Each structure stands twice: as structure tokens, then as C-alpha cells.
Amino acid sequence: MAPKKRPETQKTSEIVLRPRNKRSRSPRELEPEAKKLCAKGSGPSRRCDSDCLWAGLAGPQILPPCRSIVRTLHQHKLGRASWPSVQQIGAGGSITGLKFNPLNTNQFYASSMEGTTRLQDFKGNILRVFASSDTINIWFCSLDVSASSRMVVTGDNVGNVILLNMDGKELWNLRMHKKKVTHVALNPCCDWFLATASVDQTVKIWDVRQVRGKASFLYSLPHRHPVNAACFSSDGARLLTTDQKSEIRVYSASQWDCPLGLIPHPHRHFQHLTPIKAAWHPRYNLIVVGRYPDPNFKSCTPYELRTIDVFDGNSGKMMCQLYDPESSGISSLNEFNPMGDTLASAMGYHVLIWSQEEARTRK
Fold first, then answer.
1. N or C end of the chain: which has fewer CB within 10 A?
2. DSSP structure class, residue 33
3. Domain 223-362 adopts which CATH fold?
4. pLDDT given at position 354
5. Would the keyword DNA repair be found if you checked this record's keyword annotation (predicted)?
6. What are the beta bridge partners of residue 134?
């Protein structure tokens, strides 16, 4: 029996695809029409290739056309041939937070489920332990680092947040949330300004110089669901939050009591899935986040793809969607490099690199 055709759906965004070799496709993916992938935009359907990659991003003064952000994908599989192996810490030692040392790029800070927040190098040598729970019931879930103020901040699974200097001296250790602290972020332009996100359904803003306890926050931003992340924009003027259900919010530092915008988006929480976190582009007012299709989501369509979605941070409009048929998993974490010309997407055991440089080499 011939497979049923997928009904046509209206899309306001563009799906950028990397063409896939038919020999590497599974029989199911080769079903005619039912699973056929094509790039659709507001205009005629078309398939995108690397010839128009990054067009419009050359001039930093002008916001690029939405369809010119990313147009090709290079899959970079991490392995011993590419990077030196880092010593494993065994079962239960999952890394929950990672930041390069801003003073030495051969080192990185890591929080983990083994109950430590530490500084180590790529050979696996632990250079300093900043925080240790000394119990299997408490572990660290998040961290951030400020080079200018020489501070390290980390949060744990029971609501505590610890602030230390880079010499390892503890400045304070306080219970700031009722439940797990999923994300901590220091403002890049005003590093005494701290945002913390928690599964207690709140994001809180703090002045680290005046923290005296859980009631000393400057602002509390209630959410309808537990919160995965709270990220400051590169100019420090906006805050992006991602809940564990279907909502992305943008707040302004001039008006914390009400979000500037709400973006409906399917990224529900699943126990065995790395929490999905939306992130800013470092140069433009753009938001990138992985999609986890939800049949209960209002705009869900049949055969919806697990795309990487790019939104306009002002209007909340979908600008484009990125998708690679060879890597159809859920992209939980997406991060641009500081220049904004390369996007890394973490997906299971793979990291997908969307890069301007890669597009040039493919021509």
C-alpha cells in the first residue's frame, strides 16, 4: 500500500536543510512524499545550499535578513583525533555547567553531579575545587564566571548559591531558592548583577554586594512552570528565560515586573533529556533554541521536525529553522561564538557546527 501523503501546512518560517546522500538514508526516510523534507518559506518552496551562507552578516551595523543567518551545516564528531581526551569521572559525574577560564583558554570551570565545582585543564588535571558538597544527595547544577570582578558563582540542587573569588575564597553561601538552581548568570556589563533560575518557578535578580538571604533579592520574576535558564544579552539590558514547558520570555532591565514579550515554543522537559535552553546571538537581537515537537502544542503539525529555531528578539517572529536530515535528534543547547559567525548545537553524542568558514571551504 502506498504511504499516505503528509498534508500541506502553512509555515511562516524557512527551514534550512543540508541535502543528504540517498545511500545513507533509512528505508523509512525514503518513503515518497510522506517523509520528504523541503525548505519552505513565506514565498515559493525552495531548497537552500551553502552558496548564500551568512549573506548579510558581513556588515555589523545592519541587522541581516532572517534567512541569511545560517545556510549550511558541518557535523563535527568529537573524538580522540580532534581533541585530547579528558579524564572521565565515572557514573553519576555528569557535567551540568561549563565555562572556559577567561584568563586561560586551556582551562575550564565545570559543575557536576559528583558534587563539585572545579577548575581543570584539558588533560584532566583538577587545578582547584571551588565547592564540594561531600554528600551524594547534593550536587551542583550551574555556574558562571566573571573575569573583571574575578568571581565564580555556582548553584546546587537544593536551592543554595555560592559566590567565591577566583582564589577559591568563599564570599557567601546562602539558600536563595526553595528548589534546584538550574541556572546562574552574571550580567556581562554590570557583574554585581546576578540572575538565578530555579525549578521553584521563579527567576530572581540579585545585587551580589548586598545579598543577605533569600529575601534580599531585587526582583522576583514568577513563571507558570519550572525554569531551565535565565541569560543576559551581551549588552546586559535584556534577560531571556526558558521554562520547562512551552514559553520563552524576554525581560528588559528597565521594567522587570512585566516581560517585553512571550514566545510560545515547544521544548517540554523530559527526565532523560538535557534541559533545553534558549540563547542570545552575541551581536544581533536574535534568539536561538532547539525544538522538541509536542502533539499538545497548539501549532503542532504532522511530522514536525526537531529543528533549531531562530526568533527575532523584538517581535518574537520566527526568522528561520535549521535542520540536518543526518542528525534529527533534539538540539538541547545552542551557542554562538563571541563573533556570532559560528553556531554550535549539542545533540546527544554529536555537536553540529554551523559555520561561515565551513561554507567557504565547501564552495
1. N
2. T
3. Methylamine Dehydrogenase; Chain H (2.130.10)
4. 81
5. yes
6. none
- CA-based nearest residue to 171, from 120, 209, 217, 116: 209
Q: How far apart are CA 31 and CA 218, in angstroms?
A: 56
The three-state secondary structure class of 46 is coil
The helix/strand/coil state of 356 is helix
What DSSP element (H or E) covers 186? strand 181-186
pLDDT-derived band at 196 (thresholds 50, 70, 90) equals: very high
Alpha-carbon distance 36 to 160, whole Å? 49
CB 68 within 8 A of CB 57: yes
What is the rounded CA–CA span in Å between residue 102 and residue 99? 8
Q: How far is residue 89's CA from residue 54's CA, in Å, rounded to a whole number?
A: 39
CATH superfamily membership of 90-187: TolB, C-terminal domain (2.120.10.30)
Strands 104-112 and 95-101: antiparallel
- Please, how many CA atoms are within 13 Å of residue 298, restricted to the half-sphere of its CB? 5
Q: What is the DSSP letter of 360?
A: H
pTM for the full predicted model: 0.73
Q: How far apart are CA 288 and CA 309, in angstroms?
A: 6
**For residue 47, is pLDDT > 90?**
no
Supply angle C-alpha 265, 290, 33, rounded to 5: 90
The pLDDT of 228-257, averaged and rounded, is 93
What does the alpha-carbon distance between residue 350 and residue 353 come to, in Å, rounded to a whole number? 10
Q: What are 237's three cell numbers?
A: 539590558
Q: Where are the domains of the chain?
A: 90-187, 223-362
